[in-house]
Design brief:
This protein has helices spanning about 50-65, 105-115, 120-125, 135-145, 155-165, 175-180, 195-200, 235-245, 300-310, 315-325, 365-385, 405-415, 425-440, 465-480; strands at about 5-10, 15-20, 25-35, 45, 75-80, 85-90, 100, 155, 170-175, 185, 190, 210, 215-220, 230-235, 255, 260-270, 280-285, 290-300, 335, 355, 395-400, 420, 455-460. By secondary structure, it is an alpha+beta fold.
């Protein structure tokens, strides 16, 4: 009998279902976009019911495309946008739209908390810093502003999906997601009472936390023919990508170029805490053993390509590639701080800026300047990591933007490192398939590295003088957009 692993890859803008063989080869997939809501400037929301509907639709379509029956699927894995929070009642009905990780509505709340002097304690316990990005302040905002949320359950997207798929029988998450809430102590691997008090939430309203590779529940009453199939693996999207690259190995670095950009470096079985700008997070927990990572997050990367299309600067990715094919040099420096600056600045009040405009600036110059900001933002993170004593000589990459040879070559040039691009582009889903396969006993944790295959290596060609001049100019542009006030 054939054995398959079904992965639910719940992203920021779309839902995907991907079916893998037990050899980690994808055989069929389905993807559907869902609605983005922007009720106010800086606010971002999702309809969790719509997301669940898309999950069911994509599962059905993927199974039909691959001619795979429910009895052949031995396990389900989930990977998801991490800090987004869903408030829902005990019947699984959302009581408010999900508040997305990009949402900045809690900026004032976070600023007030910083004034109390608790940030150092928060960082020591969670590895995070006080920022609207994380789930804790979103939960408190819901408790303070939505009457129906007073007695609600609060789950990250994975926990909401587990609840729904199990017919309300299971409300669970894994440490990679729990560690992004500002509520979870990554030293004790438990929710922290003081932090829960700070964000006004009881532990009974939160999902229980268990190993990333374990049985989170069994599917109940969900077509087509998946009843009884175990959900045996969960990882937040960035940790899943690290896992997919073979990231159980200490020192391995990966960067995912998705809606945002996320650099993770596996630091082993002890958490390492760095100065402001670099986060410490749980990479995974397998068989009771926790692995940690350091992380730098950039908010706008793939979303920048969408913006170029939205404002009419390019028609599509093909036109973008045509512009880059004719050269990547530009005098325009672009800082895409549309929703604030992420690592290493963590400035929610910053806004985007474009510098170097002259009378002879053309559309192509602006497009190239926007694209150049992608590797420059990543180089900022790499320099912050190096400053803390971690040397990175090669970096594994994934995500939609990593498909661009031009941008990956720019990254290699600007960062002076090898860029390793895998054969399988769906590396986040592959990571979820791997952790689910481990949880179901199909493979052992030590086998994870065996499934990593490199397609292309990019090597640097830029001179040190060119590289430094470019980065110093970008740094000046970043300073100009910080704490922007109208």
């Amino acid at each position: 009998m054939k054995k398959y692993v079904l992965v639910i890859d719940e992203g920021t803008t779309s839902t995907r279902a991907i079916i893998f063989t037990d050899k980690m080869t994808p055989v069929a997939s389905s993807q559907k976009r869902f609605t983005q809501f922007f009720p106010r400037n800086g606010w971002v929301e999702h309809d969790a019911d719509e997301i669940y509907e898309k999950v069911l639709e994509t599962i059905k379509e993927a199974m039909e495309k691959g001619n795979v029956s429910g009895k052949d699927i031995v396990s389900v894995g989930i990977t998801n946008q991490r800090e987004t929070i869903v408030p829902f009642d005990k019947n699984g009905k959302p009581v408010h739209r999900a508040i997305v990780w990009q949402c900045r509505r809690t900026t004032e709340m976070i600023n007030r908390l910083k004034e109390t002097g608790i940030e150092e304690e928060v960082h020591r316990k969670t590895g995070l810093f006080l920022d609207p990005y994380f789930s804790g302040s979103k939960i408190r905002w819901l408790k303070e502003n939505v009457k129906e949320a007073q007695n609600a359950l609060f789950g990250t997207i994975d926990a909401f999906l587990v609840f729904k798929l199990s017919g309300g029988r299971s409300f669970k998450t894994d440490p990679s997601n729990a560690s992004r809430t500002l509520l979870f102590n990554i030293n004790t691997m438990q929710y922290d009472k003081d932090l829960m008090n700070t964000f006004k939430v009881d532990e009974s309203a939160l999902p229980s936390v268990q190993d990333s590779a374990s049985i989170f529940g069994k599917i109940k009453n969900v077509p087509p023919l998946l009843d009884g199939t175990p959900i045996s693996g969960i990882l937040g999207d960035q940790q899943a990508a690290l896992f997919g690259h073979g990231g159980i190995k200490k020192g391995l670095a990966k960067n995912t170029y998705g809606t945002g950009s996320f650099l993770l470096v596996n630091t082993g079985e002890k958490p390492e805490f760095f100065e402001r700008g670099i986060l410490t997070t749980v990479a995974s927990e397998i068989n009771g053993k926790t692995q940690y990572a350091i992380e730098g997050s950039v908010f706008i990367v793939g979303a920048l390509i969408d913006w170029l299309k939205d404002v009419g600067l390019i028609k599509d990715v093909n036109e973008l590639n045509e512009i880059l094919k004719n050269g990547t040099k530009t005098n325009i420096y672009f800082v895409p701080a549309f929703t604030g600056l992420g690592a290493p600045h963590w400035d929610p009040q910053a806004r985007g800026g474009m510098f170097g405009l002259t009378r002879d600036t053309r559309r192509e110059d602006i497009v190239r300047g926007a694209v150049l900001s992608i590797p420059l933002q990543t180089e900022e993170l790499l320099r912050a990591v190096r400053k803390n004593g971690i040397e990175i000589k090669e970096m594994h990459v994934d995500g939609g933007v990593s498909n661009s040879d031009y941008i990956m070559q720019l990254q290699s040039d600007i960062s002076n490192i090898k860029i390793m691009r895998p054969k399988l582009k769906e590396i986040t889903a592959k990571g979820a398939a791997l952790v689910s396969a481990v949880g179901a006993g199909l493979i052992s944790p030590k086998d994870v590295e065996k499934f990593s295959e490199i397609d292309r290596v990019f090597t640097p060609h830029m001179t040190m003088e060119e590289r430094e001049k470019m980065f110093k100019t970008y740094e000046k542009a970043v300073e100009r957009v910080k704490k922007w006030e109208v």
